[in-house]
Here is the input.
Amino acid sequence: MAEQQLDIEPDRVKPHHVDDFIADIIEATSAANGAHHYRNLRVFFGWLVKRDEMSSNPMDKTEPPNVAEKITPLLSDEEHRAVFAVCGGRDFAARRDTAIILLFIDTGIRVSEMASLRKDDIDLKTRQFQLRGKGGKVRIVGFGNSTGLALARYLKEREKHSHAASPALWLSSRRDLALKTDGIKNMLNRRGKQAGVSGSLHAHRFRHDFSHRWQDAGGSEHGLMLIAGWSSNKMARHYGKQAAARRALKEQARLGIADSIA
Here is the structure.
């Protein structure tokens, strides 16, 4: 609208203004970004209507942009082993990275949640930790023996760190600082490249992979929702869509419909 030299007050915005704006965003960036802006505008105008600043919401007569669904590739067992191989070693970074990656595999938690963990959150005896997720919701998440061992080894190495008194669980190997969300993302990307993983290695791949392995092993949808921090089964089904397709292919191969006739 700025390019068209239009300076419109919110209460004068019409549906076609919204459509033109979203179309410009999509053309300049992507459909996903256009959809993101569309959701933000809907919330904004809805807030104005609720505050009686506007009598109607122009978004009600618009349609959200269609976004092609992207398939997040699952990690193969070989790729998992390759990542562990490049994290091999007994130095601080190796112990830390192994513990982080195993915790991602074992729990499927979000990268922001991983970064927010504090040292005192981890209970090695019960193999559980308390997590504060989206919307401040608190949940208890468990981990297995392998992850517990990796965490114990990291915590032992962590005691030698110059910033060991920090309440943060994850510390930087280069500076006396806590490892933040971007630091974990960079570590995963680096380790993925070292291991030759197809595509980039990021927390969302672990989250998809965790959902697949949970359901493939016969885990319940309700249990998955509790551990992953989802309040709706919509997300569980979204993350498990590719896994469901894999299982359907296995089932098709097992049934061998044509083989039973020919």
